[in-house]
Every structure is written in C-alpha cells, then in structure tokens.
Amino acid sequence: MNDFFDMVYQVVRLIPQGRVTSYGAIARLLGTGQSARMVGWAMNKSHTQPVYVPAHRVVNSQGLLTGKHHFGNPMAMQELLESEGIRIENDQVTGFKNVFWDPQKELKTED
DNA sequence: GCACTGACAAGGT
DNA sequence: AACCTTGCCAGTG
Questions:
Q1: pLDDT of A14
Q2: Which residues touch strand C (CB under 7 A)?
Q3: pLDDT one digit per residue (tens) for chain A, 111 residues
Q4: Nucleotide nearest to A42 (CA to C1')
Q5: Which chain B positions come under 7 Å from a protein C-beta?
Q6: Which of A2, A4, A71, A87 has its CA 20 to 30 A from that of A43?
Q7: Pfam families annotated for this entry (predicted)?
Q8: Number of folded domains in chain A?
C-alpha cells in the first residue's frame, strides 16, 4: 500500500497546528468518497509509518474525538488538541467549524 | 476463500 | 432529534 494510505498520511501531516479535519473530508479529497472508514483504518496503522502522523487532528464529521481510545491514553488526544489551542468539550471540538481545515479547499492547488 | 470487524458518513424511519 | 440501515474497502481469523 503506497497509494491510498500514504495519501492519507500526507494530507494529515499537512493539517496545521490548531486545526482539525474529518475522515470524510480526506476520503472525498482522495476520491474514495464514501470510504471514510479506510481513512480511519489508515490512521490505525499510522503508527507503523516512519514519520509522525498527527492523527489527533483528525476527527469525525461531528467534530467528535472518536479515535481517542487509540492513543494509548484516551485523554491523550484531547490533551494534544488543547495544547494546540483547540477547546474540547464532552469529547467534541468546540467551534468545530471554526477550526475545521478543509483539505479540498486548502490544497486546491496541490499536485 | 468466506465472514467479521473497524478511528466513518449519509439517508431513512 | 434519536436510532437503524446501507455503502465502502482493506485486513485479519
């Protein structure tokens, strides 16, 4: 796998600090559309990648920290996001639309 | 090779 | 608005 998964990691790595994006947004960017699950699946094995992938900046379409259990410590994801200036309330990103980083919009000129 | 699972999303009831 | 169903695709048992 050097196509889909690597693309996902690349996009996730491009997420600026203090911003978040959704699995579906990445999926649509890659053209997989409905296969948002594969993005999450890619995140699961992101730890196998040679480079660090800020998976904590990826949340679901509701802004919920659905994958926080996969960080070893469930609150690690929230801690990381809050460290970047993102406010979390009840496992949800407050002002989600304000911190949402749309790859399709930001990377519109990507090659 | 079939079946189940999984960090999701959208649509219907 | 809450809950249920379908789609999707790769990995593992």
A1: 93
A2: A 1, 4, 32, 34-38, 41
A3: 467 888 899 999 999 999 999 999 999 888 777 788 999 999 998 988 888 999 999 999 999 999 999 998 889 999 999 999 999 999 999 999 999 999 988 776 555
A4: B7
A5: 6-10
A6: A87
A7: DNA_binding_1 (PF01035)
A8: 1
pTM, 2 dp: 0.90
Residue A107 placed within a domain? no
Give me the CATH number covering residue A38.
1.10.10.10
A49-53: which pairs have CB atoms within 8 A and are 24 or more residues apart? A49/A9, A51/A9, A51/A13, A52/A13, A53/A9, A53/A12, A53/A13
* Type of residue numbered A69: H
Q: Which domain holds residue A69?
A: 4-100
The answer as to whether A36 is a domain residue is yes
Give distance CA A43 / C1' B5 (Å): 16
